[in-house]
């Protein structure tokens, strides 16, 4: 390739001159970093913030993992890439379907474009659910910690990851699942020095542990050590997050839940409206499928504005928007959200029916995300960013722009 | 008195039939209770919430101690009682003056009215700065932990508080200062059984310790034990707070401060505008006089709306209002606030000039209050409240209404 620039989803990027690592730390509310740095748990980050750039950015709402990871790797909001949750209500078939399949993706990723431009690219995710979406159309290495024992050259662009990393396959519910991502990233950089690497962790720790607590600080100390190793190898590092994280409990310590399907059933009759929780996925033990975002399909003939206004009155609701309002404000694909979008407040989550949520797996007071209260995320680069207008609004999906256009 | 009702500041209250205790826990963000209950640290509160009433209320903005304590004891917002901060800029003299003197109070307290109606009333505060305001015009017992060794029958309505409580005078910077309030309350109830008691603590612990941490849980376990004793003596107990509390730090762990006097000086010239921080008081070691609320006096001739709009653009600002807007929205006395009122976001505080804040006393990452992000407070009653419309908006200054009109 003679060109030194790429144009992906209407944004221009320079090609990397140094190994560039974008890290998406799942559920990394900035206060995790603040409390850990303040108490001496992240010496590398403290130095990186002093010598580099520490910005606060806004993630995509719904503040969930998949929409935000796809935004980061496409440099675009869900209105462009199409992934607006883990779950989608397929109105044609009347069924709820997972959005893990790349067929739902409407835009190319920057990772695929970089590989196409001749750059070596490696992607490591914690859970396998993200891997196929992130790696779509991409030549290079792409695997998950979760299925690190099942990699093949054909499917993942690499063999014997367990041999490379020197660790066993971690449990899907563990801090180790994320540590494996960092450990693999360091080994890949040591052995293959990819031009671009994307590392994406899981928020198992953040769902259980608040900023400044021992459990959280231990995780961030672990992370800090690996990032220091990548930095020492000369990498440009951008650290961002898919979303923040907040306690979601009532004063009695139980989850503070608005059971929205029950609310609509009591108002309109059973199963007339359909409440969709796009946080739902096969791994719900740590949050019980409870987040601060829901979309609602109303029966035909419903006065949508009247329903919106009525729902907005509910205590604990931060914002209730019509489809058009939500599509505009949150940059969502209008054809993949319901007639209403409901966002609950900082301490409140939205459920469907009380009977449909199994909260028996919650062994700590609920912490979750999904709403506007979890939109604030770090956007940290271990380099100064000369020429950058720091007064502009930053998004987590500006990560590659900062890395490639300002930090090299 | 033949009447069984009182009318104070345009609200009607029944006289208490049982000993009634209103507790204002300084800086008690509801999550402190949630995390402590969830982890078994508050067995009394867990029971009280199950058998009584657990509401969430909104405090007065600025979410500071004095305006809210005065609202609770007058049942009215600052537009009625006049106390809108610790500090006031006296435009007549061009000086900043403390608002601790009862001369600033514009409304009678419910405590004074209850005493006038023949009920025995006792007030215990942590810091002495509040005592004179709370006890204004009131016959009965009124003293502070801070000056518990200096009480006189004439000034405080009681002698030998140290002998009664059996504890030494606590340090003004300690959890003991608040424990003394509870211990005194229990002893007063055991020995004198006042009809009405108002207990008000200090937020020394909350400024240092986040919800769910060891330091916070120890405080709430202590409190739970004393409240259990008051409950066992048959008291109606209302637990509320003057304001919440949030971490106020940047990702490097230092306070995230907008130095607003510096900002105005750079724009309008040195000392043309005057920034007032109503959180300022003689006890600033634990927060460095940094909170999320400021008022600003602009030089005459300034286009106020233009200044408002310009300041609203600053990153970290949640709301900037003109005097009239702030007086209406926050129910503040228009003659005691500046031309602008500025409220910063959850993680951000407002300072005057960097050179005027001594942060050397901060021995933990800054936690503070003052803004809309600290407006959510508990309003808990250890009784069911039959007939109460629980969908209405609750304020912390509804505490006596719930206690006297619904819980007896």
Automatic annotation (TrEMBL), chains A, B:
<dbReference type="InterPro" id="IPR012710">
    <property type="entry name" value="Phosphonoacetate_hydro"/>
</dbReference>
<protein>
    <submittedName>
        <fullName>Phosphonoacetate hydrolase</fullName>
        <ecNumber>3.11.1.2</ecNumber>
    </submittedName>
</protein>
<keyword id="KW-0378">Hydrolase</keyword>
<dbReference type="GO" id="GO:0047400">
    <property type="term" value="F:phosphonoacetate hydrolase activity"/>
</dbReference>
<dbReference type="InterPro" id="IPR023116">
    <property type="entry name" value="Phosphonoacetate_hydro_insert"/>
</dbReference>
<dbReference type="InterPro" id="IPR002591">
    <property type="entry name" value="Phosphodiest/P_Trfase"/>
</dbReference>
<dbReference type="InterPro" id="IPR017850">
    <property type="entry name" value="Alkaline_phosphatase_core_sf"/>
</dbReference>
<dbReference type="Pfam" id="PF01663">
    <property type="entry name" value="Phosphodiest"/>
</dbReference>
């Amino acid at each position: 390739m003679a060109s030194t620039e790429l144009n992906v989803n209407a944004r221009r990027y320079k090609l990397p001159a140094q190994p560039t690592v974008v890290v998406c730390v799942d559920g990394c509310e900035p206060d995790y970093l603040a409390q850990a740095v303040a108490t001496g748990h992240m010496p590398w980050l403290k130095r990186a913030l002093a010598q580099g750039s520490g910005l606060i950015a806004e993630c995509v709402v719904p503040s969930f993992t998949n929409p935000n990871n796809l935004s980061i790797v496409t440099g675009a909001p869900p209105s462009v890439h199409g992934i607006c949750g883990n779950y989608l209500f397929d109105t044609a078939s009347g069924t709820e379907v997972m959005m893990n399949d790349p067929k739902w993706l409407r835009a190319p990723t920057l990772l695929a474009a970089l590989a196409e431009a001749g750059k070596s690219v490696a992607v490591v995710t914690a859970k396998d659910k993200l891997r196929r979406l992130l790696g779509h159309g991409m030549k290079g290495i792409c695997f998950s910690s979760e299925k690190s024992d099942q990699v093949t050259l054909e499917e993942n662009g690499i063999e014997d990851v367990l041999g490379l990393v020197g660790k066993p396959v971690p449990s899907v519910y563990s801090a180790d699942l994320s540590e494996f991502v960092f450990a693999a990233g360091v080994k890949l950089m040591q052995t293959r020095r990819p031009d671009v690497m994307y590392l994406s962790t899981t928020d198992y720790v953040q769902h259980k542990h608040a900023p400044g607590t021992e459990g959280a600080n231990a995780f961030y100390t672990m992370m800090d050590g690996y990032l220091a190793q990548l930095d020492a190898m000369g990498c440009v590092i951008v650290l961002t997050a898919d979303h923040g994280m907040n306690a979601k409990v009532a004063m009695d310590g139980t989850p503070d839940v608005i059971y929205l399907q029950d609310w609509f059933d009591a108002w309109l009759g059973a199963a007339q409206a359909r409440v969709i929780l796009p946080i739902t996925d096969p791994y719900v033990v740590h949050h019980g499928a409870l987040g601060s975002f829901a979309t609602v399909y109303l029966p035909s003939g419903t006065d949508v504005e009247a329903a919106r206004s009525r729902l907005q009155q509910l205590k604990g609701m931060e914002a209730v928007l019509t489809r058009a309002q939500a599509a505009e404000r949150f940059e969502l694909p209008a054809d993949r959200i319901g007639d209403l979008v409901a966002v609950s407040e900082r301490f409140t989550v939205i459920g469907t029916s009380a009977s449909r949520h199994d909260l028996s797996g919650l062994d700590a007071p609920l912490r979750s995300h999904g709403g506007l209260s979890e939109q604030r995320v770090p956007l940290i680069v271990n380099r100064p960013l000369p020429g950058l207008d720091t007064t502009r609004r930053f998004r987590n999906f500006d990560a590659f722009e900062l890395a490639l256009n300002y930090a090299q």
